[in-house]
Structure formats: C-alpha cells, structure tokens
Amino acid sequence: MSSYYPPITYIVPPSEDGWLLKTILQKRMDVSRKLLSRLKMTEQGIMLNGERVYISVKVAGGDRVEIRMEQETSADILPQDIPFDILYEDEHLLVVNKAAGIIVHPTHGHYTDTLANGVVHYWAAKGEQYRFRPVHRLDQETSGVLVIAKNPYSHQHISEQMIAGTVDKRYSAFVHGVPASPAGDIDGPIDRDPAEPHRRIVTPDGYPSLTRYEVKEVYGDRAARVELKLETGRTHQIRVHMSSIGCPLIGDGMYRHPLYGRGPAAERLAGAAGQADAVLTAAAYEPAEPEPPAPQKLSAEEAEQLAGIAELDAAIPRQALHAVRLSFKHPLGLEELVFEAPLPPDMALLEHKLRHDA
C-alpha cells in the first residue's frame, strides 16, 4: 500500500456550490494538468469527503476536497553526511544557504559531494522521505539562498511564480571597475559561445535576458559592490552581463577581465598576487583554471592596471557572487516568505580588503 504526504485540503464555500470538482482542483487549488493526471492515477490522490471520486462530480458548499501525493525518494542519490546551512523548513519546503564550491545536484561524472547528497542524508537521518527537487540552481562557485521543494505541488507553485516574474531574487557581487551609471538595466540576449560551448556570450540571436543592477559601494575607481536583480534566469547571466559592460566579477576564472589576454605577464602577475594575499584565500576548493593569455604588448598604464586586477582576483578563490535575498509566496498559505543570507566569510574578507585599500 502506498504511503502519502499529509493531504492538502480545501473546504468548498457556499458560493461554489454546484461547481465541478475538476474546476475546484484547477481554479481554487491550482493543481496543474500534469499533477492532476498523476493524482487521478493514485489510489487516494483525489478525495471528496473521504471518498475517492471522479473529477467530473459536482461539489456542494462545505465539502472537503483533499489531494494526496505519494511519498518519494531520490534513490539514485547517494546519502552523504555533508553539513549545510538551513534557513527554513516545513513539510513543503527546505530553504538553505548554499556554500560556495558545492554543486547543487549530481551530474555526469560528479555523483557525490553535492548539496543533494547532503540533503538526502539529512532527511534519511530524520526518517523522512522526499525527492530532492531544487526549484532553481546556483553555479557551483556561487553561494546563497536556494529553495528545495519537498513535493510536486510545491515545486509547481514556486516554478510558476518564477515564470511569472513574481519571485524576487537579489544578488550581491564585487566587480572590477565601476559601472558607468549608478543603476541600470542590462538587456542583452544570451546564448552559448560557438567557440566554447561551456561559456555564454551576449549575442543578438540569444535568449532574452534582463539584469537590473544598483551600485551600493565604490572603492575608488578600482572596484564596486553591486546589488543585482534577475528578471530572467539564464545560465551565468550575472557573470556574462557584468562582463559585457566592462565590469567582470572579481575572482571569476571563466569571464575574466579582457586585460588578461593582452600580455604574457598576466599569469605571472596573478600568481604573485595570490602569494601576497594567501591569507584571504583559505578555501577548500580551487578556482577555475584561467585561459592562457595571448602575448601582446601592454602599455605601462595597462600593466599597472592588470597588476591590480590580478591582485583582486587572487583575493578570493571564486567569483564574488552571493544570492543574498529571495522572496516568494508560500505554495499553501500564500503568505510572502523572505529569506536573506549574509555575505559569506570569503566575500566579507574581500569587502574588508577593498575598503582598506580604498
């Protein structure tokens, strides 16, 4: 016999007397077509006053409508005792503050040491059964707020909010240079780089992508802290967009400052800066491998600028990007939930260095 999660219940008001059960499920309980088809095939998936019925029946005021989802597990994910920071949890959601350096979900060739492995172990240790369902993703080296749904209904509801643009996602980042305007929109279509498919570029033929930014603090003309709001969710969107306006993220090994390709001394400068600032880079993971620079002659001013850029990049072992805030409506109560995660230690140290140097 199947085991079920606690039911989601709706009491029919008098004003909806005579409605079809199907209408109640779709219009009042917001059950998607996909989930509705799944519930219809489940023994206790759809119940009216404690009895299994067809969705074509009519309801009466005061009737109790319940949907039940079968318990699931992520049998393909190996449980591992990996600690993680929990911001919130109930029977429908798990919200975490993801650390930098950890992949969200197992991928080909990387089946262990992910957030999913740690979450599955955590649930198993509590005697609970859920399938690991991240509602969105963060890059491996990006830290911050991440939402995991515990059932298909919750996943559907938050995903629909994201598609509708009602989920507020805010990021903090430290970038090279200072944007020309203190606030603005970066509206640049993004797609894969034909020459390097693992990278993304701004291209007229790409997918519509919009990032809103606001400069929060300036450190001379060398760097700035910006807050960013995503209106779309393309892969590497913030990193690509900030690079496209000449302000790449500090520490980003993939979308590096263009001066790195201008002189043969770039790698040597980056290495020297790394030794000088080793105290700021205590981390359990390695930054992305830099691309080899093309040997070109730098002016004295450019060489000095590159030395400063390399010094900052060596001060943090990953892109300085953190998902600082996330808000959305709870899938059941529909109250607004707001989650915030403070800057992690490596970004806080970088901030201290920038302020000190400025």
From TrEMBL:
Q: Which GO terms describe its biological process?
A: enzyme-directed rRNA pseudouridine synthesis
A Pfam family matched in the record: PseudoU_synth_2
Q: Which InterPro entries match?
A: PsdUridine_synth_cat_dom_sf (IPR020103), PsdUridine_synth_RluA-like_CS (IPR006224), PsdUridine_synth_RluC/D (IPR006225), PsdUridine_synth_RsuA/RluA (IPR006145), RluA_PseudoU_synthase (IPR050188)
What stretches pass through the bilayer? none
Q: Which domain of life is it from?
A: Bacteria
Catalytic activity field:
a uridine in RNA = a pseudouridine in RNA
EC nos = 5.4.99.-
Which of UniProt's keywords are assigned here? Isomerase, RNA-binding
- The reply to whether RNA-binding figures as a keyword in the UniProt entry is yes
Which residues does UniProt mark as catalytic? D139
A Gene Ontology molecular function term for this protein is: RNA binding
The protein's matches in SUPFAM superfamilies, at most eight in alphabetical order, are given as: Pseudouridine synthase
- Asked if Isomerase is a keyword of the record, the answer is yes
Q: Using the record's annotation, list all stretches that form the Pseudouridine synthase RsuA/RluA-like domain.
A: 92-244
Top-level EC class, please? Answer: isomerase
> What CDD domains does the entry give?
PseudoU_synth_RluA_like
The record's function comment reads: Responsible for synthesis of pseudouridine from uracil.
What family is reported? Answer: Belongs to the pseudouridine synthase RluA family.
Checking NCBIfam families in the record gives: rluA_subfam
Q: Can you say what this protein is called? A: Pseudouridine synthase
Species of origin reads Paenibacillus typhae
Q: What is the lineage of its organism?
A: Bacteria, Bacillati, Bacillota, Bacilli, Bacillales
